[in-house]
Amino acid sequence: MAVRTPRSSGTSPPRRVAVAAKGRKPRPADPDRTRTTIPAQLGRSVPWPASPDEAELERVPNPHPTKLYLARFTAPEFTSLCPVTGQPDFAHLVIDYVPRSWLVESKSLKLYLGSFRNHGTFHEDCTIAVAVRLAGFLRPRWLRIGGYWYPRGGIPIDVFWQTGRPPADLWIPEQGVPAYRGRG
Q: β-strand 59-61 against 2-4: which pairing, if any?
């Protein structure tokens, strides 16, 4: 289905309407898919959120909702605090997801991940909290996260989670983080 933007004769912005493909009945345009929204945090100076609960994730419409593809975000400098000692914990997070209608806006994701810097919780909780929030917010076809945590007390902890089986016929590369040997 093609989407056309009629020319506007006045001061009101153009309205998007759906135009039927040849031989098909016209359908009303989906306002969530055709509305152009500019994320509130993008292009502005935004303070770091004080906690993950205060961080605002934003999304934008997926320009290819019918295509099967994987998007990856890598956060090699993820930081949180040990809830017992208050010492910093460091991780290399790899987030893979197969979008449906929405893409996560990257600046809002950066601010959300950065909000863990002063947040005290265990490695497993951080990793799963990020995954569950993204999965609920985006409702992707599939999502997985790998949390590769650097050692504390001599033991690295790696945490993995995914929403289910990955879609068939999708190429999913390895996450590329080696097993611990002085990670890097």
A: unpaired
To the query of whether residue 96 is one of the catalytic residues in this protein, the response is: no
Task: State the virtual CA torsion across 119, 124, 129, 130 in degrees, nearest 10.
Answer: 90
Q: Which of 30, 32, 53, 89 is catalytic?
A: 89
Q: What is the pLDDT of residues 48-75, one digit of tens each?
A: 899 999 999 999 999 999 999 999 999 9
Residues in CB range of 166: below 8 A, 6 or more apart: 98, 142, 144, 172
Helix 106-114 crosses helix 123-138 at what angle (to 10 degrees)? Answer: 150
User: Residue 113's closest CA among 152, 65, 160, 55?
Assistant: 55
Task: Using DSSP, state whether 121 is helix, strand or coil.
Answer: coil
Its pTM stands at 0.77
**pLDDT number for residue 182:** 63
* pLDDT tens, position by position, 115-165: 999 999 999 999 999 999 999 999 999 999 999 999 988 889 999 999 999
| Bridge partner list, 81 | 88, 120
User: Catalytic residue among 30, 82, 125, 158, which?
Assistant: 82
Burial code (b: 16+ CB inside 10 Å, e: under 16) for 48-66 equals ebeebeebebbbbbbeeee
Measured CA to CA, the distance from residue 124 to residue 129 in angstroms comes to: 8
The reply to whether 82 belongs to the active site is yes
